[in-house]
Amino acid sequence: IGGDFHISSCVELTNICNFPTLARIDGSFSISGCNHLTVIGEYPRVSRIGGSLSIQSNKSLPNLNGLSALDTVESYFVLFYSLALTNIDSLHRLTYIGEFLQISNNFSLTDVDGLSSLSKIDGQLIITDNFALSNCCGLSNLFASNGVDTNRVTISGNPSFCSSFDDILYSCGI
Fold first, then answer.
1. Is the CB of residue 63 less than 8 Å from the CB of residue 85?
2. Is the pLDDT of residue 1 over 80?
3. pLDDT, tens digit, for every residue of 65-77?
4. Is 171 buried (19+), middle (13-18) or exposed (0-12) by CB count in 10 A?
5. Which residues share a beta bridge with 101?
6. For a surface tag, which of 24, 34, 66, 121 has the fewest beta carbons within 10 Å of its beta carbon?
7. What totals of helices (H) and strands (E) does the chain contain, helices first?
8. pTM value?
9. pLDDT in the model for residue 157
């Protein structure tokens, strides 16, 4: 796709079909306001998004499994208000985010283990108000490699062990 790819306000959509031959998304990719969405189809060849990635306000989405080949987001990555999202394990290949990463208000998210390969964010890291998030050790590689400017890290409103930058360093032994 030479430009942007947006899926939004799909009131009855439960499943986004597979795109096995889609090789690239040069622009931004967003999925928002699809309240009954439970499956993101497989995008096995999309390793890079040339713009931003936005997954927000998808009340029934439990995971991001269709994005397992992703290693680079050139702009920002926001993950907001996906109330049923329990894990982001399929992002295990993601190594680079160009602008910022924000993970906020995902009330069922318990860990960020899927970010264990993330080694560089050129801008801010914001992790706020994820009320079940009790394991942030998936960020260990990012912090240990100085892959984000610690002055541009905002972590708050999450339970113990993910309640602050210092809390994560301590609980993960960094």
1. yes
2. no
3. 999 999 999 999 9
4. middle
5. 77, 125
6. 24
7. 2, 13
8. 0.94
9. 96
Asked if the model's pLDDT at residue 46 lies above 90, the reply is: yes
Whole-angstrom distance, CA of residue 136 vs CA of residue 7: 29
C-alpha distances in angstroms, 95 versus 20, 35, 161? Answer: 22, 29, 23
DSSP 8-60: E--TT--EEPP-TT---B-S-EEEES-TT--EEPP-TT--EESS-EEEE--TT
pLDDT at 60: 96
Q: Assess contact for 119 and 97: CB atoms under 8 A.
A: no
Nearest residue to 1 (alpha-carbon basis) of 34, 44, 50:
50
Nearest to 128 by CA among 102, 159, 104, 160: 104
